[in-house]
């Protein structure tokens, strides 16, 4: 059971976890132990509320396939249990990030005082640089 929020939970049957061999360096251990976790989560078949499903399907993330399946590969840690926890945490964070509402940006103008201060500092810097020039007699 993966708890997403106070009222949203995912059952174990919705998340497909399989152990695979991790890639990369690790000596002899990496060649004989399946410590990496491959997580698959079908958004359309899940029991998530429709709002969550729509937001996840419209999300442009490379971990979400065209069919609406989230695929996460966790191989950071040496043990399978740690990688399983990492994959589940990353799934939870992905689902929660889809529900964050981005605040609309309102266009604003700089104040007259800030414009004046900007021009004054530019004039001061220009005057300082003009004093560094070669003196012409």
Automatic annotation (TrEMBL):
Q: Which InterPro entries match?
A: Pep_chain_release_fac_I, Pep_chain_release_fac_I_sf
Organism listed in the record: Vibrio albus
UniProt keyword Cell inner membrane present: no
**What UniProt keywords are attached to this protein's entry?**
Cytoplasm, Hydrolase, Translation regulation
PANTHER family per record: PEPTIDYL-TRNA HYDROLASE ARFB
Q: Please, which domain of life does this record's source organism belong to?
A: Bacteria
**Which Gene Ontology molecular-function terms are recorded?**
peptidyl-tRNA hydrolase activity; ribosome binding; translation release factor activity
Tell me if Cytoplasm is a UniProt keyword of this record.
yes
Stretches for region Disordered: 105-137
Identify this protein by name: Peptidyl-tRNA hydrolase ArfB
């Amino acid at each position: 059971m993966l708890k997403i929020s106070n009222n949203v939970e995912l059952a174990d049957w919705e998340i497909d976890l399989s152990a695979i061999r991790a890639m990369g360096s690790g000596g002899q251990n990496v060649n004989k132990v399946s410590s990496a976790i491959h997580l698959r989560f079908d958004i359309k078949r899940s029991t998530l509320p429709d709002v969550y499903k729509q937001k996840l399907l419209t999300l442009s993330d490379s971990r979400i396939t065209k069919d609406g399946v989230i695929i996460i590969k966790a191989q950071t840690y040496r043990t399978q249990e740690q990688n399983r926890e990492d994959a589940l945490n990353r799934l939870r964070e992905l689902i929660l990030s889809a529900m964050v509402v981005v605040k609309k940006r309102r266009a604003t103008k700089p104040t007259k005082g800030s414009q004046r201060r900007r021009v004054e500092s530019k004039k001061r810097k220009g005057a300082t640089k003009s004093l560094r020039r070669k003196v012409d007699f």
